[in-house]
Amino acid sequence: MGDFVIKNGVLEKYTGNGGHVVVPDGVTEIGERAFAESPSFAEIFGDVPPQRTYITSVQIPNSVTTIGNEAFFSCWKMTSLQIPESVTKLGKRLFPYCPGLTSLQMCANTQIENDTFHFNGWTDLKEFILTAPKSGLIDMRNVMKIMNMLPETVKVFLKTEPPRPKIRRTVRTFAPLTESEIKNL
Hints:
Blueprint: E1 4-7, E2 10-14, E3 19-22, E4 29-30, H1 41-44, E5 55-59, E6 66-67, E7 80-82, E8 89-90, E9 103-107, E10 127-131, H2 140-149, E11 155-159, H3 179-183
Parallel strand pairs: 2-4, 3-5, 4-6, 5-7, 6-8, 7-9, 9-10, 10-11
Antiparallel strand pairs: 1-2
């Protein structure tokens, strides 16, 4: 695990060379600023070529349940992120200074902080895909909370795939209700 500092299941810091990053199985938490990068302003605005390869995407395993505050701080080359359903809690300000982030996907029921999606006004996020949990029950209050945090230009999609299984219906015959039974309904 040479590219990661991991202690007791918590990924504390990514120390690798960027590009596509695969978080190791067994990590249960991504800590505060674990993937934070520090490009110079000259690199960001194209005045000088990048001095190294930056993170472009992060693959999170199903063992992760929590992502800490500002975990992806200044990941300016990251274009998309898919947060698995196993993640039940997201910290504050996950994506400040992530102008390259255009697509984000997560479970509609993942609990968020009041400013989880605070982008510092600097984002190219175009689509936000909320997936239905395996249970099929969607917490619409949480969905509305998420939508209220996003810039108005972001398109939000609710994805319910894989399709829910078909329900078998059992047909039963009952004696018709009497007029007095109908009145008592």
